[in-house]
Amino acid sequence: MDEDWRLTGKSEVLRIRAAMTRSIRRFFQDQDFLECETPLRIPAPAPESNIDTVASGEWFLQTSPELCMKRLLAAGYPKIFQICKCFRAGERGALHLPEFTMLEWYRTGTDYRTLMDDCEGLIARVAGELGLGGAVSWQGRRIALLPPWERITVREAFARYAGLSVEEALRRDCFDETMVCAIEPRLGMERPVFLYEYPAELAALARVNAENAEVAERFELYIAGLELANAFSELTDAAEQRRRFEEASRDRRLKNCPAHPLPERFLQALSRMPPSAGIALGMDRLAMILTDQVKIDDVVAFTPESL
Amino acid sequence: MYTASDLRKGLRIKIENDPYIVTEFNFVKPGKGQALYRCKLKNMVNGNQFERTFRSVDIFETADLQEKKMQYLYREEGKYCFMDNQSYEQVFLSADQVGEAKYFLLDNIEVEILFFEDRPLGISLPNFIDVVVTKADPWAKGDSVSGNTKPVTVQTGYQLQVPPFIEEGEKIRIDTRSGEYLTRVKG
Prior knowledge:
The complex is a heterodimer of chains A (307) and B (187). Chain A is α+β, with helices and mostly antiparallel strands and 307 residues long. Chain A is built from ten helices and 13 strands. Chain A has helices at 2-8, 11-30, 66-74, 112-129, 154-162, 166-171, 175-183, 238-254, 264-270, 283-291, and strands at residues 34-35, 41-42, 54-56, 59-61, 79-87, 99-108, 135-138, 141-144, 150-153, 193-199, 215-223, 226-233, 276-282. In chain A, the strands form three sheets. An eight-stranded mixed β-sheet of chain A has the order 1-5-6-13-12-11-10-9, sandwiched between helices. In chain A, strands 2-4-3 form a three-stranded antiparallel β-sheet, with no helix packed on it. In chain A, strands 7-8 form a two-stranded antiparallel ribbon. The longest helix of chain A is centred in the N-terminal third of the chain and has 20 residues, at 11-30. Chain B folds into three domains: 2-62, SH3 type barrels (Roll); 66-124, CATH 2.40.50.140; 128-185, CATH 2.40.50.140. Helices cover 2% and strands 53% of the residues of chain B. In chain B, a hairpin with a 7-residue loop joins strand 3 and strand 4.
């Protein structure tokens, strides 16, 4: 009876979440995106300094579907999206589940600015179809969703909220701490914010900006202090990508993290991939925003602890 | 020794010769960045609080504290009296030191009293206690599927939210760490 009570207590949130997923699918289908499914279990994930994998036999559970999706772009698919599970070892907190749901979409022949427009269109439409109108109310705040949303560079955000330059933060090795403590909690409290132009060394799979080699064409979307999505103008230089993977692998070895083989087939495909932009959006967190919840536990029926 | 990934609410660590307790804990990870552990720490001797962010490579010393099983006897003028059942030694804790635990002090309940250099610092309760519901509105039948809750008062005077099917006179189990309802206790 207690178990049922806990699950039925989530019925309204789960209903809204299901409607959100349907609405997201319609958004992409209406624009002729192809919905794809790529394997959850892969032999060689992209090595990233700060993302740990879950082993599955000799292989690994994906931490994101990006490698296979980019192979589809390389083969000529122009617009694709996927809703799938991703797995990241050791990530558990009010905003993290070790198994979570990701929405990823990719477009060829464009850069990350188009993805900002996509985000505005997608989330405004989903909120509209859920009957929320042009705003969400979150923890007593009203967050307006009508485009255009705020766009600020990482440089501006550090100056405005932390009184510290990006270079200074990197030199003092406190970029992540400053982001988490001083900047993120203030982003997207009145309307959503795109934080863009990240230091080049913090964007493993992104293209460096043509006019300024110190920043990468990467953005993160924030609503109500929650990081919702990460986007890149994708790096298409296979030699450069290999160099960055090897660097990340070295970094992982130094931290005694388990080694992964390099994703060779992805690297081969990358040399054929047209200019593209791609984005990963956390569905659980979007559900939190749309249902006014502060804990990720409250937008899924089951947490690992309840199994 | 502890590492940052051991950090959780309630953990006691030693920093510069003082014992600290983790009073709030959050796992955070900025996009593509490293895992960070945001903690609120409370000095267990003077009560001072501060916030600190740790990385997964950080390590901590264990705070060398002694815990003694003692029995709760009575409350008098805002002081709470506990007794060691072997030595009959009695100690008094202030309302501040007892804190939220006051809601769960059943008569004669056995608790752990924490000592730092012979000074009592605080109290830890059993994780779960069973208490009798002394005040509850009756259950409107047919209301069971909505997943809503209702407030009740238990024998210690503590109030909490429970499922609507809990009735006056029933026993329920409470998690003393969160203060939340866990389950109905039969018999």
